[in-house]
Amino acid sequence: MDTNDRPYSQILARLRDAGLRPTRQRLALGRLLFEAGDRHVTAESLHEQAVSAGASVSLATVYNTLHQFTKAGLLREVVVDSARTYFDTNTSDHHHFFHEEDGSLSDISGHAIEVTGLPEAPAGTDVARVDIVVRVRSSR
Amino acid sequence: MDTNDRPYSQILARLRDAGLRPTRQRLALGRLLFEAGDRHVTAESLHEQAVSAGASVSLATVYNTLHQFTKAGLLREVVVDSARTYFDTNTSDHHHFFHEEDGSLSDISGHAIEVTGLPEAPAGTDVARVDIVVRVRSSR
DNA sequence: ATTCTCTTTAGAAGAATTATAAACTATTGA
DNA sequence: TCAATAGTTTATAATTCTTCTAAAGAGAAT
Ligand SMILES: [Mn+2]
Ligand SMILES: [Mn+2]
Ligand SMILES: [Zn+2]
Ligand SMILES: [Zn+2]
């Protein structure tokens, strides 16, 4: 009943709502993902963090969990690099700065953004999403 | 001196300007890429097309050539799918519709597009490019 | 022609991701 | 409580895309 119970129970509730059993692994990954504000992770980076935080979880489970969380709407995928998949804990409408040099992402709120001049979607198709990626590099 | 000489010599000139020897393989790939209007290819798709057009070229050479052409400014990469790399013969400022179902791309001219509300690039960085991907799906 | 440099290629290797199937664990309900 | 059940984890193999290696081949220069 101390203040540390809240995060746990929030994550428990998220797992419950998603129909996922609150296993040791999912709780550990859920805490890493959702207790620290918005995050952009790859399977490898989250696995490393979990292991170095003392959680015993396999890379296969990290992949499974990221995909399950994504299907449950707790995460979304961000495509910015054809070499690896990023997962984003911010599921609201937003866009990204992508640092090509170190592979890091930062959010651009979707509220202020407006795109004008887009043609209609090709005949027979509907727009699923509009993604904007601003690729940046260190100046000098 | 017939009309078929023009495309060849255009591609020869492009290779020459890029400092690339006009080998049988580069000419064949260059013709497939540049004689048919704007194209979006993957290494695999271009290799298949080359082979079925009777050109004898290895997949490794297709990868090499796509990267060399990109470095020379004849192609650009488009990141829309974390599973494979697309190369685009349209090197002008433009954006894309991406059909997630069949992996096809189509161009959105950059001229008409305007994005408002973008924050400044993070401190110490410069914008290298802004990419807009409109993900579409078949309606119904 | 000879030589030099660049290019191609088969095959190995690398990296990210997914599949398999056996061991494990949470949940259920006797 | 305690099986029985269904869901989960994981080591390991497999897959896919891409890059590397090093030897053979081909264009360019002399
Ligand atoms: Mn995936
Ligand atoms: Mn590449
Ligand atoms: Zn984000
Ligand atoms: Zn294009």
Could you say which structural class the secondary elements and strand pairing of chain A correspond to?
alpha+beta
The CATH class designation of chain A is Mainly Alpha
Q: What's the architecture of chain A in CATH terms? A: Orthogonal Bundle
Largest sheet of chain A: 3 strands, antiparallel
* N to C succession of SSEs of chain A: HHEHHEEEEEE
What are the distinct ligands in this entry? manganese (II) ion, zinc ion
Number of domains of chain A: 1
Largest interface: A-B, 40 and 40 residues
CATH topology of chain A: Arc Repressor Mutant, subunit A
Q: Measure the end-to-end span of chain A.
A: 52 Å
Oligomer kind: homodimer
| DSSP strand tally of chain A | 7
CATH superfamily of chain A: Winged helix-like DNA-binding domain superfamily/Winged helix DNA-binding domain
* Beta-strand share of residues of chain A: 25-35%
Helix content of chain A: 25-40%
Average predicted local confidence, pLDDT of chain A: 93
Would you write up a description of this structure?
Two copies of one chain form a homodimer. Chain A is of the alpha+beta class and 140 residues long. Chain A has one domain (3-136): Orthogonal Bundle (Arc Repressor Mutant, subunit A). Chain A is 34% helix and 26% strand. The A-B interface holds A 77, 79-85, 97, 99-100, 106, 108, 111-119, 121-122, 124-139 and B 77, 79-85, 97, 99-100, 106, 108, 111-119, 121-122, 124-139. β7 (125-138) of chain A pairs antiparallel with β7 (125-138) of chain B, so a sheet runs across the interface. The structure holds manganese (II) ion (2 copies) and zinc ion (2 copies). Chain A binds a DNA duplex (30 and 30 nucleotides) through residues 20-26, 42-44, 57-61, 63-64, 82-85.
